[in-house]
């Protein structure tokens, strides 16, 4: 045992110079921490590597993140419960606001009275289609087109949207492939990137005019209520 100590000592010093902590050296050599301390005490304390600093930071902040995430989920669950069952009028108002926020709108410089909706969020698309159904828009009046970056898994993206809206993949219009700009660092990549879905309603000039009127009705009502509360 005594003969082995010089080898242990040399190895301990080698590990210390490599940046290992006392605990790491003890774990590798199977010796007492007091022995390690004695063997390497004349060596400068190693600087922590980026990895070690990251691990220490993670260990320090992990409990706070867990508590924050738990609080976030608690607030979301409570807010979800506050909505309760949605009435047809609730859906109607929500759909009008949703379209006016995300749908295409006629402009003075580009008049176009067509109901066209583009979004990347499957839940938003689902709610929009529910709203169209509430308005009595028949499925045969709907046309779907996918817009996605060319370096995505196009076939998988098309299948995802086809499944979501309940059509065969052959029922989708021609997919628009967006060119990839190598200079741009995109965040929306990976298996969860599905591009956008375009939903067009055929013969929708009258529908568009009604949506515009509904929206102005909502705004006018809000202003009237505000004026009433102020007086």
Write up what this structure looks like.
The chain is α+β, with helices and mostly antiparallel strands and 231 residues long. The chain folds into two domains: 37 residues, no CATH class; 143 residues, no CATH class. Helices cover 56% and strands 9% of the residues. It has eight helices and four strands; from the N terminus they run H-H-H-H-H-E-H-E-H-E-E-H. The longest helix is centred in the N-terminal third of the chain and has 34 residues.
What class do helices, strands and sheet pairing give?
A: alpha+beta
Count of separate DSSP helical elements: 8
Shape: elongated
User: How many structural domains?
Assistant: 2
Give helix % range.
55-70%
| Biggest β-sheet strands, sense, barrel | 4 strands, mixed
């Amino acid at each position: 045992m005594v003969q082995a100590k010089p080898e242990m000592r040399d190895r301990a010093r080698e590990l210390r110079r490599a940046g290992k902590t006392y605990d790491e050296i003890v774990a590798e050599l199977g010796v007492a921490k007091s022995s390690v301390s004695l063997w390497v005490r004349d060596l400068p304390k190693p600087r922590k590597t980026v990895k070690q600093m990251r691990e220490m930071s993670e260990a320090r902040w992990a409990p706070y993140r867990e508590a924050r995430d738990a609080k976030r989920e608690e607030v979301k669950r409570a807010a979800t419960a506050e909505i309760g069952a949605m009435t047809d009028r609730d859906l109607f108002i929500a759909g009008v606001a949703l379209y006016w926020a995300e749908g295409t709108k006629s402009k003075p410089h580009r008049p176009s009275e067509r109901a066209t909706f583009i979004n990347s969020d499957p839940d938003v698309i689902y709610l929009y289609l529910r709203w169209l159904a509430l308005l009595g828009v028949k499925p045969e009046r709907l046309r779907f087109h996918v817009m996605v970056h060319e370096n995505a898994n196009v076939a998988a993206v098309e299948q995802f949207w086809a499944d979501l809206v309940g059509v065969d993949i052959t029922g989708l219009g021609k997919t628009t492939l967006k060119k990839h700009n190598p200079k741009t660092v995109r965040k929306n990549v990976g298996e969860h990137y599905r591009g956008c879905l375009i939903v067009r309603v055929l013969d929708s000039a009258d529908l568009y005019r009604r949506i515009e009127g509904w929206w102005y009705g909502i705004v006018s009502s809000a202003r009237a209520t505000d004026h009433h509360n102020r007086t």
